[in-house]
Fold this protein.
Amino acid sequence: MASRLMKSVSGIRGVVGETLTPELIVKVASAFAKYSKNGTVVVGRDSRPSGEAISRALESALALSGCSVIDLGIVPTPTVQLMVEELQADGGIVISASHNPAEWNAFKLINSKGTFLNSRDISKFFSLMETKFKYKKWNGIGEVVYNNMAHDIHIKRICDALDCEAIRKRDFAIVLDSVNGAGSRITVELLNRLGCRLTTLNCEMNGIFPRGAEPLPENLKEISKRVIDESADIGFAQDPDADRLAIIDENGRPIGEENTIPLVVEHLLSKQIGRVVVNFSTTNAVKDIADMYGATFKRVKVGEINVVEDMLKNGARIGGEGNGGVISPEVHLGRDSLVGIGYILEMMAERGKTISQLVRDLPVYVMKKGKVKYDNSLRDNEIFLKLKNFYRDEKISTLDGMRIDFVKEGEFKGGWVHLRPSNTEPIFRIISEGRDKKHALRIYNHFAKMFKN
């Protein structure tokens, strides 16, 4: 069976040679030229083997549409976002399927502010893809230029937000696993700039993913062992486009990517209290930390742009998503694993604590994540209606699928479940959180069986 073309607020994803074809590349480029009014477009890609060919086709179609194209080469997704802002471009396109396997690739679309297109703009863009395109004559074709300053500019922005000298004094020993993705070179450069003693793992930037692309605990066995072997202070693992960060403590234990954002939130609020924005699938530990500091806390729909739009509209000290995505207005409004790395090292340096000690200071929750095949059937809607009625006395939100916070007495009390279709894969995501592993699993299993045939 051929794969589906995934079109959502997260962009357009498909399997190369099946749903991601030359015809699609031209449609995306031509529509984006219309969207950006034939202006300047910044293009970057991750290290997937298909990326170079796709970028050349995309850039040619953009130029033939009259756009000026700035090619950044292989860079993290957040680097493209930052450079759109830095260069005052009219938009940007990232060629990256993020955590999807290597046979996938995708287009992430960026507006002139350096943030992703919101649901309104992405709908407009999808409509443009179905229109007839008019290309420029020979003397109206745009130019493609190359820019090799993106890494330096990104790193400077991060270092300007940190106490770099405090980090350098600690002389941290670090193991880095960039899954041979776009974060490989720039993250090494950042850590060298911060005076760290570095051991690299999977930092070849060749697009061959030697482990699962997502930085989940089950994919981090090699770096966990390496942290122990090297007597390192900490290990950092990224996904292929380097917008997500997972952490391994000094004992070789993955702390869970859902704990990345609570650590950063606690660190930043301890310095300056401000508003916190996360999505519905993010751990309750963030809310507990915000409450402890008296900070305003807000949940929004899953999807980076939903967090960012709320931060732009209402202001925020820090935001993020529970998949290891840190969004800091001090640097730029996009998920950024490098920003997360900087803040975590600063936190360790200033407090003189190990990463395991810092994690022990966090509110204790355990999360269970899973997925089931999803076909958008009426049966699923019927399940939602039944759940809404059955759990009417619990705290329920239907802004993004369904999230139920269990506040009544009973076996689920103190936990929650979030049920929603994925924006990036043809699956249905189920996430539960409880006081401990047994509690989280009990909640998860109860709801997962409802979606099984």
Summary: The two ends are 20 Å apart (CA to CA). The CA atoms of residues 420 and 450 lie 13 Å apart.
